[in-house]
């Protein structure tokens, strides 16, 4: 419904959303959460089969976006370890490999992954949620932060390896659940009694991946970051964007 514009870039692929639901077993207290929770079981196998993914971690859960044309490979790759369902008219219907066998290609030998530059700014971030019925109370502030508060991005100097600070604000509204990532300074502008965070209220630091826009054809970027963190039991949120990837630890 958006009018065409020379200022709007649209990726040519159509993406499908995967969400991974546990089988009811409670995670142990020391288990890493976020993207590292599914690093070995989902992200690494998809990378090995040359499936490009976009990650969207939220306060509530993690979503993996895959291109529609890759769905047969995704299902063949994950069917051995997961029960896979598709949503039809609001109902979850089991999917079998036979349903998508047409178009499945055997994986090619993996190429060496590209090494992208990473930056770790000094900015500290909060991962928050808001009760939907309180959203109108902060709507004006949200609009101001989203559209009016940020200066245009500065081009990093040729010799700058680290950024002192980074402008990053992520807002998602998925099936009524709201998730927000904002820097600690921006959080102070909001009414503290309306923003809900974990009981520890811990702050997060960011690693930004990519020296220039990454595009959507490369595979394994998320796996490169998530697998070592999972091996060290480090929780991480991961947010892919049009231009860069961002890991919050």
Automatic annotation (TrEMBL):
Keyword Ubl conjugation found: yes
Pfam families with a match to the protein in the record: ACT_7, CASTOR1_ACT-like
GO process annotations (BP): negative regulation of TORC1 signaling
GO MF annotation terms: arginine binding; identical protein binding
Source species, domain of life: Eukaryota
Subcellular location: Cytoplasm, Cytosol
GO cellular component: cytosol
InterPro entries: ACT-like_dom_sf, CASTOR1_ACT-like, CASTOR_ACT_dom, CASTOR_fam, CASTOR_mTORC1
Domain CASTOR ACT positions: 11-78, 201-249
Biological role: Functions as an intracellular arginine sensor within the amino acid-sensing branch of the TORC1 signaling pathway. As a homodimer or a heterodimer with CASTOR2, binds and inhibits the GATOR subcomplex GATOR2 and thereby mTORC1. Binding of arginine to CASTOR1 allosterically disrupts the interaction of CASTOR1-containing dimers with GATOR2 which can in turn activate mTORC1 and the TORC1 signaling pathway.
Subunit structure: Forms homodimers and heterodimers with CASTOR2. Interacts with the GATOR2 complex which is composed of MIOS, SEC13, SEH1L, WDR24 and WDR59; the interaction is negatively regulated by arginine. Interacts with TM4SF5; the interaction is positively regulated by leucine and is negatively regulated by arginine.
Similarity comment: family membership: Belongs to the GATS family.
Protein's name according to its UniProt entry: Cytosolic arginine sensor for mTORC1 subunit 1
